[in-house]
Amino acid sequence: MTTSKHDFTLRFSRRYSMAHRLTSGAAPACSVPHGHDEVVTVEIVHADNAPLDPATNMLVEFDVAKRRWFEWIDRAVDHSFHLNAEDPLVSYFRTQEPNLVSRLLLTPGDPTTEMRALCFKSKLQNILDAGQRNLVCQRLTIQETPTNAVVCEADRSTMERLLPAGSFWWHRPDPSINDL
């Protein structure tokens, strides 16, 4: 049996609705805007495998670990439209429906479940870092459909290698989902 290097893992799940489209041609059925009801589950550990706090018998109070993350999912991600930052629909929204630009979640390349899992994990880690509790997102899972899910276990160096550098929304602990 494999044992985890961390004694305690906090796991939180949140459901949200979203729409997206993929334009690369790799998934032709997904080139038409469509939606999913998804569940994102995160697993958080203490970076140093800290013991339980003797005063509370907790690693950290659940609300402290999840509040800002759930607020971001509920206020920014739920009912957002996920697009490649280069998708022509971005220009459409900027000129024709500027009031909806804040609802566009933009990714580098197609907003596949894999890319969104990577962006979400980076965003969550920045939220956790801002809380200064030495917590790390070990695993993030997006359940796209009842039968399809993506699990992201990328560490910081992998996320830095796979995501463009700079002050993009996934690198900041703020409530943003795009940089328009």
Describe the protein in words.
This protein has 180 residues and is α/β, with parallel strands linked by helices. The protein has one domain (10-171): Tetrahydropterin Synthase, Chain A. Helix content is 28%, strand content 26%. It is built from four helices and six strands; from the N terminus they run E-E-H-E-H-E-H-E-E-H. It has helices at residues 62-77, 88-96, 113-130, 156-162, and strands at 10-20, 34-46, 80-84, 104-107, 135-143, 149-152. The chain has a six-stranded mixed sheet. Strand 5 and strand 6 form a beta hairpin. The radius of gyration is 17 Å and the shape is elongated. The model has no long low-confidence stretch (mean pLDDT 94).
Compact overview of the structure:
With 180 residues, this protein is an alpha/beta fold. The protein contains four helices and six strands; from the N terminus they run E-E-H-E-H-E-H-E-E-H.
